[in-house]
Amino acid sequence: MRTAPPRKKRTSARGWWLKQLHTWHWISAAVSLIGMLAFAVTGVTLNHAASIPASPKVEDRSATLAPSLLRLLKPTPAQSDAPLPAAVARAVENAVGLDAAGRPGEWSDAEVYVALPRPGGDAWVSIDRASGAIKSEVTSQGWISLLNDLHKGRNTGLAWRLFLDAFAVAAVVFTLTGLLLLHLHSRHRRMTWPLVALGFLLPLVVAILFIH
């Protein structure tokens, strides 16, 4: 039985790797394309955040808690950061449109205060423990602030953090398969490794010389 010549085997193996790498490269590119574009744009906006004007919008709302629910706030909880009782949290959401369920509260003798930070703004709600008066405030910093906070994963919750992890994995696959494709094609493109070295050395030199 005749065996394939070594050169033919190498060519066959190279073709198989090229096919696999191209497949994983375009799949990871498709999955992470919008994310990488958004991260690149918000990288610029974050870098120039002080130069981008913002016009915050503040919305205040108020309501009154029903006496039957106010009684639930009379006992001081054992934990100083205990959340609102579930029934009270539902009433607050219905009254002012803010979901405080499960969020840590700040209990004092006079009120319960719940901070509700969010991407691109802030919010809070407080309930007077004597009168049941509900006060709330929602601040919006605009779309750029929202996108910047999404970039950083700031006050975004578990689902967004999991998405960022998945996006990061796709981006790593994209870059590593790109590097391997560069390696396979480098013999025909002499500037491949000098450009890769430049991409590595340029940020390193800038960091060493100008970041203190």
How would you characterize the overall build of this protein?
InterPro entries: PepSY_TM-like_2. Keywords: Membrane, Transmembrane, Transmembrane helix. This is Peptidase. Pfam families: PepSY_TM_like_2. The protein has helices at residues 6-47, 67-70, 86-96, 143-152, 158-185, 192-210; strands spanning 57-64, 105-107, 111-115, 121-128, 133-140. It contains six helices and five strands, in the order H-E-H-H-E-E-E-E-H-H-H. With 212 residues, it is of the alpha+beta class. Strand 3 (111-115) and strand 4 form a beta hairpin. The relative contact order is 0.13. The chain has a five-stranded antiparallel sheet with strand order 1-5-4-3-2, covered by helices on one side. It is elongated and about 85 Å long. It has two domains: 6-52 and 144-210, no CATH class; 57-141, no CATH class. The chain is 54% helix and 15% strand. The model has no long low-confidence stretch (mean pLDDT 91). Helix 1 (6-47) crosses helix 4 (143-152).
